[in-house]
Amino acid sequence: MNSIDSLKERLLSEDMKKASDIEQEARKKADEILEQANIKANQIVEEVKQKAEKDGKDRKERMIARAELESRNIILQAKQEAIDLILNEVINKINNMSKNEYSILINKMIINNVQTGEEEIVLSIRDKDRVSINLDEINKTLVAGGKRGLLRINPEYADIPSGFILRKSGLEINCTFEALIRGLRDELEAEVASVLF
């Protein structure tokens, strides 16, 4: 059991390193986007200010206000692009994992998303040859955690981009990476924005 724990720790450490690398790369790209947006925004503000001085005080104030609004919009758009870049990069990195890494990730996600331990797992058709589910080990882990160890795999596949669906009594939990990231987007936007900006 120690070797399994050791393997889990090593894999978790590797995943954390990969996540850190993704974050650093995304920060660099986000900084470049934001720098370009700030330069463009400053140019717009300057051009509008110069024109406004020639056209009079009232017009000047209206144009400055409009330029500042446009500047804020450009910066907001750059932030959105940076966040999109980060989230897309995460999905990209997941999609480019080795079969073994991806299988380990999917197995962990199943354990983390199971509610009762009696659900049915419907895998993505795109993952048909990519993922290996260790159902016996997952069920043992669920039982050890106080849940029922009666998970089963549906022999049919879902037409989803990645991940899986957990199904029980007509209810479904969408565990595609896209859905999970979309679900966390609001939470991540504030966190990523505070880190990057």
Automatic annotation (TrEMBL):
<comment type="function">
    <text>Produces ATP from ADP in the presence of a proton gradient across the membrane.</text>
</comment>
<dbReference type="InterPro" id="IPR002842">
    <property type="entry name" value="ATPase_V1_Esu"/>
</dbReference>
<keyword id="KW-0175">Coiled coil</keyword>
<keyword id="KW-0375">Hydrogen ion transport</keyword>
<dbReference type="Pfam" id="PF01991">
    <property type="entry name" value="vATP-synt_E"/>
</dbReference>
<dbReference type="GO" id="GO:0046961">
    <property type="term" value="F:proton-transporting ATPase activity, rotational mechanism"/>
</dbReference>
<dbReference type="GO" id="GO:0046933">
    <property type="term" value="F:proton-transporting ATP synthase activity, rotational mechanism"/>
</dbReference>
<dbReference type="GO" id="GO:0042777">
    <property type="term" value="P:proton motive force-driven plasma membrane ATP synthesis"/>
</dbReference>
<dbReference type="InterPro" id="IPR038495">
    <property type="entry name" value="ATPase_E_C"/>
</dbReference>
<comment type="similarity">
    <text>Belongs to the V-ATPase E subunit family.</text>
</comment>
<keyword id="KW-0066">ATP synthesis</keyword>
<protein>
    <recommendedName>
        <fullName>V-type proton ATPase subunit E</fullName>
    </recommendedName>
</protein>
<dbReference type="GO" id="GO:0033178">
    <property type="term" value="C:proton-transporting two-sector ATPase complex, catalytic domain"/>
</dbReference>
<dbReference type="GO" id="GO:0005524">
    <property type="term" value="F:ATP binding"/>
</dbReference>
<feature type="coiled-coil region">
    <location>
        <begin position="16"/>
        <end position="54"/>
    </location>
</feature>
<keyword id="KW-0813">Transport</keyword>
<keyword id="KW-0406">Ion transport</keyword>
